[in-house]
Structures are given as structure tokens and as C-alpha cells.
Description:
Layout: E1 8-10, E2 18-19, E3 55-57, H1 75-93, E4 99-101, E5 107-108, E6 144-146
Antiparallel strand pairs: 1-2, 1-3, 4-5, 4-6
The structure holds zinc ion (2 copies).
One zinc ion binds at residues 10, 12, 15, 17, 45, 47-48, 50.
Amino acid sequence: MARPEDMWQCQTVNCGYIYNPDKGDRKGKIPKGVKFEDLPDDWRCPICGGTKKCFRPLAGPGSTKADCELPVETDSAKLTAGAETAKLERKETNPMKKYVCDVCGYVYDPAVGDPDNDVAPGTAWEDVPADWTCPVCGADKDSFSPEE
Ligand SMILES: [Zn+2]
Ligand SMILES: [Zn+2]
């Protein structure tokens, strides 16, 4: 049995994971019998990802948690970031959607704009002035539908 001073507990809020040298850390590929002191410096708490500095022995002259470092990027943070990026990409593609005049079939292309009527190239449909009208037949913006 490991002595209490060989058992190290994670001090991170809401964690409390205890490293038991008798068990090792299967997730971190630490075999049984490895003392906490002998864990690699880049070993992380399997629960919260805190560094070794987050740990304190259950007994004996314990260190303080002064230098505890949590990982900057967790897997869930990465996932969230990925979702954000996807959202941004969708946002960026939508404004460049083309709109078709229901009356005459004229296509408003945001990449081209309508320079003859003071709509600069790159103007998203939403940013085209409300009083802009179809340069071909004069229909208003309400007469346009997004191109499929
Ligand atoms: Zn932890
Ligand atoms: Zn038209």
C-alpha cells in the first residue's frame, strides 16, 4: 500500500483527483509503481489537465499550489473553437449570395455590385440601399429572391 505521503491530490477547484502510485495513471500511460516525484514534468492531471504543480501530497511536508497551471487549450475548447470557425465561415459566404430579380431575371452579384448605380463591387445584398432598384426593369429590392 502507498503511504499517504506518496498519494498526491490535485488542488484544482472541482477536481480532487488523487494520484496513487500503486495504480499509476492508465490514461497518461503511467505504469503501476511510479512515484509522483518520478512522473514526467509534462504529465497532466487526467481529470482537469492541471500540471504536477497543482498537486499536493495527502500527508507530509506538502508544497503549496502557487504555480498551478491549467492547460490553455482543452479538447472541449478546441471543439468550441472549431464550431466558431465554422460559424464564421458560414457568415462569410452568405453575404456573397446572389439575388435574382423576380420580374426580369437580372442577377445581383455582390462580387460585382452595381457600379452604375453607386453600389460598389463587394457590397452584400443586405448592404445595398433600400431604395436601390433593378437596373434593368426598375423593380425594388422586395422583388428579388436569393439565388438557389
Ligand atoms: Zn485535477
Ligand atoms: Zn428586374
